[in-house]
Amino acid sequence: MTRSLDHSTDQVTNSISFGKMEVPKESNIKKLEEAVKYMLDDEEKVREKMHDSIHTCSLYFTLLRQHGYEVSAYIFENFKDHNGNFKASLSQDVMGMLSLYEASHFAYKGEIILDEARKFTSTKLKEMLGKIDMEIGAQVRHALEIPFQCRMQRLEARWNIEAYNKKDGANQLLLKLAILDFNMVQSMLQRDLQQVSCWWKDVGLANKLGFARDRLMESFFWSVGMVFQPEFSECRKGLTKVAKLITIIDDVYDVYGSLEELEQFTDAVERWDINALQHLPDYMKICFLALYNTVNNMAYDVLKEQGHVILPQLTKVWADLCKLFLKEAKWSYSNHIPKFEEYLSNGWISSSGPLLLVHAYFLMSQNITNEAIQSFNTYPSLLRFPSTIFRLSNDLSSSKAEIERGETANAISCYMHENGVSEEVAREYITSLIDENWKMMNKELVSNSLFDKSFLEIAVNLARIAQCHYQYGNAHSDPNDVTRNRVLSVIIEPIQLKTQQPIWTN
Question: Residue 90 falls within a domain, yes or no?
Answer without folding.
Answer: yes
